[in-house]
Amino acid sequence: MSSTLLLASASPRRRELLQRVGLVLEVRPADVDETPLEGEPPEVYVARLARAKAAAARSRPDEWILAADTTVTLDGQILGKAESPEEAAKMLRWLSGKTHQVVTAFALTGERDGQPVVREGTVSSDVTFIELDAATLADYVASGEWRGKAGAYAIQGIGAALVAGVGGSVTNVIGLPLVEVLAALRDAGGPVPRFAAGTPA
Length: 201
Hints:
By secondary structure, this protein is an alpha/beta fold. It has a single domain, classed as Alpha-Beta Complex (Maf protein), CATH 3.90.950. Helix content is 31%, strand content 28%. It contains six helices and seven strands. Strands 1, 2, 3, 4, 5, 6 and 7 form a seven-stranded mixed sheet that branches. The longest helix is centred in the first third of the chain and has 16 residues. The radius of gyration is 17 Å and the shape is globular.
């Protein structure tokens, strides 16, 4: 059995979370169409993309592959990645003073005793934003941190100053529910973390 976990994601945050706990990684980003289907619920959307990314990254049946997808949702609406400062400001105004959900789905595939193994999970966390005044919102948008981030913010960065509270998994909000992923790896018989070989914060 390979001790290397293939991460089907270009996300530096997911890579850092997994390397922090001592997993040996190979990064092989998967290119899939991330357009939501009409009327697709957020949980179904991220699960579909996680499965598609895992399948797209596979080159051998015995590889252990982890793929994930994260979205921000408010009132059942999917908030993707803003394409412009104006779109980022619009998203942030909508999140201001409210509690929204961050939903991540992951798909783990591999092989044990010659048989395919699949483990999947979806985790949702509640994130409550402070009330954003016009100056704070403009200042955050000017930072550029919103680029490439679902919901136009990054809780692990400057965006932490916008968050009044988190209910549930914090690593899920960053992009990968670490506890649940490690439990799936153990249950599936995949690569295991080695905390002593990890990278402390």
